Amino acid sequence: MSNFRWVICGLLFLATTVNYMDRQVLSLTWKDFIAPDFHWTDDHYGTITGLFSIFYAVANLFAGKFIDWMGTKKGYLIAIFVWSLGACLHAACGWGATSLAGGSIVALTTISVWLFLSCRLILAVGEAGNFPAAIKVTAEYFPKKDRAFSTSIFNSGASVGALAAPATIPVMASYFKDAGYGNGWEMAFIIIGVLGFIWMGLWIWLYDKPAKSKYVNQAELNYIEQDKDIADVQNREEVKEEKTIPFWHCFAYKQTWSFIVGKFMTDGVWWFFLFWAPAYFSDLYGYTSDSTMGILLILTLYAIVTFVSIGGGYLPTFFVEKKGMNPYLGRMRAMLIFACFPLLGLLAQPLGGISVWWPAILIGFLGAGHQAWSANLFSTIGDMFPKSTIGTITGIGSMAGGIGSFLINKGSGMLFTLAAGSFLVTGGTSTEPEEMSVKNYKHLLTTELLAKGDMQVDSAFATLPDVEKATASFEKARKRGGSFFDEYATRAGIIENITGQKLTAEQKSDAGFIETQFNALPDKDKAEAEFIARKDYSAKAEIVVATLNSEEFKELAADGEKLAEAFQQHGCEVKSAPLHALGFNGKPAGYMIIFCICSVAYLIGWFIMKSLVPKYKPIVIED
C-alpha cells in the first residue's frame, strides 16, 4: 500500500502550523516593536485582536460553503494565498501610516490601527478557510476510523505553530531591527507570510482526489474507500454530483447544533491561552515573553500540548476496534475523557504559589485536552454529514467558536482591568487613572530614581550586585532608552529647557513640530548629546530598579492588595480597589475566575452535545 494519505496529512499539518504562526506575529511583536512606533496602548491592541475574532467568526460562516463550492484543491489554494498576502501586507502599515499621518502622533496612532485592522481582516478571511478545507481533505483521504488520528496530527499544527512562534518571531524581529531592516517587525511578517506561498507550490504539485492521484495505488484507494457501500465502490468510475444541504437547512438538524455548541463552548478556551499565556506569566510571575524563563515556560506549555494531544486520536480508534463501538459513540466516549483534562486548570493558580512550573505544566495538559477534543469534534462532522456539506458545517461551527473566542477574550480583558484596580499619581499632570500593574509600579520607581539626579543613578548602578551583567543589559537597552523612554517627550523637555518656552499639549503631541523645533535649536550638538544622555540614564535607572526590586515585584504580582499598598506608599491615590475573589486578589483573582470558566466549559459542552445527539445518526439526503 502506498500510504500517500499521510503525505497529504503532513501538508495539512504544515498549513495549520503556518496559519497559527501568521496569527501570532502581531501578538509577539506589538508590545516591544510595534507599539513604540505607533504609540499604541493596550486598548488599541485589544480593539485589533477583538475585531480579528469577529472577522474570523463571520468569515467562517462562509468559508465552509466556499470550500464546498470551489473544491478542496482550488479552495485551499485561494484561502492560503489570501492569508499569506494579508500577513505580508502588515509590513506596509508602518510606511502607510507615516505617510498619511503628516507628523501628528494622534493621527499616526489612529491611522496605524485602521491599517492593521484592514490587514487583520484580509488575514482572517483567508485563515477561516484552513479548517473547513483540512477537514474536507481528511474526509476524502481517510476512512472514518482513522479520521480522529489524522485530524489530531494536522490539528497539532496549531500547537506547533504556537510553540514555534514565541521561539522564533521575537528573535527574528530583534535580528532584523539590529541589522537595520526597518524596525524588525516588518520582516517578521514578511518571512512568515512567504511560508504560505511556498506551501502553495507543494499543494499544486502533490494534491489531487484519491481516485485521480498518481501517488495513490489501488490498495490504498480501497483502504481509503472502505466505508463506502459496495455498490458505490463498484461504480466509483461513474462521476456523480453529490447532493448537498442548502445553507439555511443545515440549522434544522440537531447534529449541526451539537457541533455549534461544542465549538462555541471550547474554542474560546484555546484562544484565551493562545493570547493570554505570555501575559499570565508576565503579570503574575514577572517573566516577560522575551526573557529566558518566559520563553522556557511557553515552550514547555506548548510542548506538552503538542505531544500529548497527538495521542488523542488513538483513543476513539481503541473504542471502535477493541470495544466494538460505532465511530460516533467511540468519539463521544473519548471526548468525555478529554473534557476532564481542563479540570486540571483549577489547580494552576493555587499551585503557582509553590512553583511557576506547575501552571505551565497544568495549562499544557489543559491545552492538550482541548486539541484532542477538537480533533474528535471535527471528526464527528464526517460521521454525520455527507461530504458535500462538511465544509459548510465546519464553517458554521468555526463561526460559533470565533464568537465564543471574542466573548471570552474581550471579557477577560475587561475583567483583568477591573480586577487590577487603578491609581492616580498625587500631584501628577495626568488626570486619568492608570492600571495598578507591576509594570506601572516599575515605571513609578524609575521616574522617582531619575528625579534624584544623574549622580544618584550612576551611584546606584555602580553598586549593583553584578555590575558586569548590568552593564551588558545596559548596552542592549540604551539603544531604545529602556521600556519607559519616550523619545518625543524627552526632546520636548530639552526644547523647553534650552529655549525657556513652555510647549502646549498639542505641540508635544505633534511629532513633526517637535522634530523641527529640536533640529532648529541654537546648539544642536549639545541638544543631541543631552538627548543621548537622557536615553542612557533612563535605561540605567530602569535596570537599577529591576535588579534591586526583582523579588518585591514577584511578590506584588501575586497579590493585588500588596501592590495597592505599594502604590500608596509612594504617594499614589488608589482610585479603584483590586478585586477579591476565590481566595485571590487583584489580577490573580481575575485569572482564577477565567480558569474556572475554562475548566468546566468542556464538560458542559459535552453534556449538551450528548443530549442533542444521543446516538449515531448520520444524515441522509433523500431524492
From TrEMBL:
Molecular-function annotations in GO: hexuronate transmembrane transporter activity
Transmembrane segments: 43-63, 75-97, 103-123, 153-176, 188-207, 264-281, 293-320, 332-351, 390-408, 589-609
Matching SUPFAM superfamilies: MFS general substrate transporter
Stored CDD domains: MFS_ExuT_GudP_like
Bilayer topology term: Multi-pass membrane protein
Superkingdom of the organism of origin: Bacteria
Coiled coil: none
Segments forming domain Major facilitator superfamily (MFS) profile: 8-445
Annotated GO CC locations: membrane
Claim: Transmembrane is one of the keywords in the record: yes
Family matches, as Gene3D superfamilies: MFS general substrate transporter like domains
Keywords on record: Membrane, Transmembrane, Transmembrane helix
Subcellular compartments: Membrane
Xref: InterPro entries: MFS, MFS_dom, MFS_Na/Anion_cotransporter, MFS_trans_sf
Designated name of the protein: Nitrate/nitrite transporter NarK
